[in-house]
Amino acid sequence: MDELIAVDIGNTNITLGLFKDKEIGDRFRISTNRNATTDECFFWLKDMFPLWEQTSGIRSIVCSVVPSLTEPVSGAIERITGKKPLIVSSDLNLGIEILYNPPEDVGADRIANAVAVSEFYQLPAVVIDLGTATTFDIVSGNREYIGGLISPGIETSLSNLFQRAARLFPTDLIPVKSVIGKNTSDAIRAGTLYTAVDGIEGVTDRIESEIGKLSSVIITGGLAEIVSGVLRRDVIVDINITLKGLYKIAERNPQ
């Protein structure tokens, strides 16, 4: 059986997927602790795999946008599997050309997303990742990563609002039926959701005005389902796109 451990270390969460014969089996997510040690990462991983002894020799791949955690997580994986994980970078065989200046500045998660888009969806395409930052990454019809956009994430902006506005209090971001809020909580929800949605649609329109019509618009991240529900354009929700990209990168770079 072909197995692979794929780990996406993000600013807010760490996501781990165990692939079996090219399909995602178990999938886990925990909050990111930037100060975690190799030992702490080891016990976290051990808890995720009750039969972790059976992971000996399994291949693994890590993409990280948190430099302080790259080595601790990689070291923990090596302790469990007996093999060093593959670390995602622009230097690997990706199957796409990166037209970014310089290429090494592209985040590892954005690389994984772009690779997944090029492998699983019609091109040209954009993948919109709703995380700590909201990122747009565009892959041309010639399998070129041509760049993208980075803006503060939806929940990041909301958290900053609560920190700076004395009379506004934390509110769960849930769908609202009307763009016009009838109370403060719904006004915050509507304002946060619809300004984000209109921003996504507006930016996507601008991308198309520069490169032509997109064949695929993919949304991922924790808020993908909520946001996609009120978008006026057709989109594809794929919460596993980063992990799928990691699988394809590992496939192209055998250890």
TrEMBL record:
Positions annotated to bind ATP: 8-15, 132
Q: Is-annotated flag, keyword Transmembrane?
A: no
Name the source's superkingdom: Bacteria
One example GO MF annotation: ATP binding
Q: Quote the record's binding site residues for substrate.
A: 100, 107-110, 184
- Which function does this protein serve? Catalyzes the phosphorylation of pantothenate (Pan), the first step in CoA biosynthesis.
What is this protein called in UniProt? Type III pantothenate kinase
Q: Which gene encodes it?
A: coaX
